[in-house]
Write a structure and sequence with these properties.
The complex is a heterodimer of chains A (197) and B (307). With 197 residues, chain A is α+β, with helices and mostly antiparallel strands. Chain A is built from 5 helices and 8 strands. In chain A, strands 1-8-7-4-5-6-2-3 form an 8-stranded mixed beta sheet, sandwiched between helices. The chains are: A alpha+beta (197), B mainly alpha (307).
């Protein structure tokens, strides 16, 4: 065998090893995305009223991927950014009927259905985003015991995290609703869940 | 002695930089760029965390994914190794080659480029993987391997004076090679533009299939294919110009370039028409970096004959 042939064989072997390594890493990365959104808990039963007056219960979450937030309309800090980010996601996933959004007010005294209706028109462009209100004690219990999110000193003390819930009502992951990299993460996790079926 | 020392350190730096481009490509195609949300540390640690408990309280653990963290950190660690290797190379250049501007400047430029690209790596992370900045990060890496390839072949010539081919650098060959290099750089910029646009479109349209993403691209995606085939003809013409060379280094290199261009066209078509896009993308990008460096090496093996 000439030295050129030997070099060629070595080169092909090297490329093959690198390719296998690349394939292995890409595969691992893909699988890790699914492992990384493991089940954290289950959404309990609840009953709240949507801005259009309809009653929304946990059954609404069946067979849909849901993104849940706690906000109030007079909030000037985190809420506008959170709702803006949810609005962006609603827009980006608008062609899918498998995704919905829920925003629950932590200030039901001020946030009447009319005010929620007005607030919704600022952010939502599709009827897959529910703006919900209910008894303040129910909201606190749902936040703390249902979604494991702190709800002290409401309305302002609500959590700024977004919750990803799968089609079986499992809580899969939390995202800081005001942090761009977290929204990026949420978007790719939604795609991962959608691809899983 | 110093010649050999510099050649070895330049060669090692070049090989490591090519490996770094491969790993960097792997970070991009596997989507691991945000594996570490901070920079230069990873979740506030010099050794990335292996479990979620190790993440300090002030850092948000939402994005923690051990696999992605280690892929991203692998790229950074190899980057540090390349940096050290180039520092050693520069020290040798400054100590022994102060009178050889080709060697000295190739070392200093490499040092500048590796430092700048390391810093740009920080901006890649803080920009949440802005596709423009990610592409700029790759283009700087291409400049780096170009300069390193130049330094390597120049120092190789110092220790192997009699080893070069008998092809003289005729005007025709010189112009054709420079044109090939320039067109390949343009081709890479077009390819980078396509990738950047695909990623931008995919951010706004996460549900698009590969076909929809390609449809949404501007018509200059065809320019990339057309230029690709033009490069093939240009390299065939160069093989013809080199026909009288015995099977020396130059001839091997021009055949290698022709082969690489064929492989690149094959990989490009594969990405459009078939699956396994990530691995194909990785090798398509990596192959382009090989072409850039090898043309520089070929050109400088020839330039020697003129003197």
């Amino acid at each position: 065998m000439t030295s050129l042939n030997k070099k060629l064989i070595l080169a092909f072997l090297f490329i093959f090893i690198l390719g296998s390594f690349g394939f292995y890493i890409i595969d691992k990365a893909t699988k890790s995305r699914i492992d990384n959104i493991g089940i954290i808990g289950k959404v309990p039963s609840f009953s709240l009223t949507n801005f259009d007056g309809t009653v929304v219960t946990e059954k609404q979450l069946n067979d849909k991927i849901s993104i849940v937030s706690f906000i109030f309309t007079q909030c000037e800090g985190a809420c506008p950014i959170m709702s803006e980010n949810m609005s962006t996601l609603q827009e980006r996933f608008t062609s899918s009927s498998d995704i919905q959004f829920l925003s629950i007010t932590t200030d039901p005294d001020y946030d009447t259905l009319d005010i929620l209706n007005e607030y919704s028109s600022n952010y939502s462009n599709k009827n897959n985003w529910f703006f919900l209100r209910g008894d303040i004690l129910d909201v606190i219990e749902l936040s703390e015991k249902g979604f494991f999110l702190s709800a002290a000193l409401l309305p302002a003390g609500h959590s700024t995290r977004l919750v990803l819930v799968d089609k079986e009502l499992n809580i899969r992951k939390y995202y800081e609703g005001t942090v761009e990299s977290n929204i990026f993460e949420l978007q790719s996790d939604i795609v991962t869940l959608l691809n899983q079926g | 002695m110093a010649n050999k020392l510099f050649f070895r350190s330049a060669l090692i730096s070049t090989i490591l930089s090519y490996l770094l481009i491969f790993i960097g490509g792997l970070v991009r195609v596997s989507g691991s760029g945000l594996g570490c949300p901070d920079w230069p540390k990873c979740f506030g640690r010099w050794v990335p965390p292996t479990s979620i408990e190790q993440i300090p309280a002030h850092i948000d653990p939402t994005a923690f994914n051990i696999i992605l963290a280690w892929i991203e950190y692998g790229n950074r660690m190899l980057g540090v190794i390349v940096g050290l290797s180039i520092i050693i190379m520069t020290v040798i250049a400054v100590l022994y080659f102060r009178n050889n501007s080709k060697i000295l400047y190739s070392a200093l430029w490499s040092l500048f480029l590796v430092g700048a690209n390391g810093g740009l790596g920080a901006i890649v992370v803080s920009s949440v993987l802005n596709p423009f900045i990610v592409s700029l990060h790759m283009i700087l890496a291409l400049f780096l391997v170009s300069v390193l390839s130049y330094g390597t072949i120049e120092s190789y010539k110092l220790i192997n004076i009699n080893k070069f081919s008998n092809i003289l650098l005729s005007k025709k060959i010189s112009i054709s090679l420079i044109a090939l290099w320039g067109l390949i750089v343009i081709e890479i910029l077009l390819g980078t533009g396509i990738r950047t646009n695909i990623e931008l479109i995919a951010i706004d349209n996460p549900l698009y299939s590969k076909g929809q993403l390609l449809d949404a691209l501007n018509s200059y995606k065809y320019l990339h294919s057309v230029l690709g085939f033009s490069l093939l003809f240009l390299s065939i013409y160069l093989c013809y110009l080199f026909r009288d060379d015995f099977l020396g280094l130059s001839k091997q290199l021009i055949y290698f370039i022709l082969g690489m261009i064929l492989v690149q066209i094959f990989l490009g078509e594969l990405m459009i028409f078939f699956e396994l896009p990530q691995l194909t993308r990785l090798f398509h990008t990596w192959g382009s970096s090989w072409l850039v460096g090898i043309i520089i090496i070929l050109y400088n093996t020839l330039q020697y004959d003129q003197s």
